[in-house]
Amino acid sequence: MPAGNLDTTNLLLGILAAVSVLEAIALVAGGILVYRLYNQAMRTVQQLEERHVAPLVARVDTLMTKVDGILVDVKAITTRIGTRTERVDDAIQHTINRVDQTAGRMRESMATRLGNLVAMASGARSVLGGLFNGRRSSGEAPEGVI
Predict the structure, then answer these.
(1) Cβ neighbours of residue 136 under 8 Å, at least 6 residues apart?
(2) Which of 86-90's residues contact partners 24+ apart within 8 Å by CB, and which partners?
(3) CB under 8 Å to 141, separation ≥6 — which residues?
(4) 136's torsion region: left (phi>0), alpha (psi -120 to 50) or beta?
(5) Is the pLDDT of residue 52 over 70?
(6) What is the mean pLDDT of residues 4-22?
(7) Backbone region of residue 13 per phi and psi (left: phi > 0; alpha: psi in -120 to 50; beta: other values)
(8) CB atoms < 10 A from the CB of 133, how many?
(9) Confidence of residue 125 (pLDDT cuts 50, 70, 90)
(10) How far is CA 12 from CA 6, 7, 18, 64, in A?
(11) Tell me, what's the pLDDT at 39?
């Protein structure tokens, strides 16, 4: 083998080694740069959380606590209203039933009294008819009575 060929190969290998070292240095530098950017971004996010998000979370927690209390009160009031509505409905239904019963009794009482009155009127008519018909000696019916 000629000596010239080996020198060229060694030179190319040296260049490849130097480029590999430069690539490794570039990769390490890029990694360090990315790590620093990541740390800076995380610090910025943390500062934003401390300044803006944490107070908002605290306010929302306070509001949610108040809303939970209000919901408990609303639920209790709704339960009481439901119970009282049922009581009022029962009272109205009871009153309606009593009015119906009273109306029925009044109808029966009035029907009985009216029946008695009609019977008395019929009896009185018969008595009066008998008295007036009894005075006639001919046995003719009075005028207007058939």
Answers:
(1) 142
(2) none
(3) 133
(4) beta
(5) yes
(6) 89
(7) alpha
(8) 14
(9) confident
(10) 10, 9, 10, 71
(11) 97
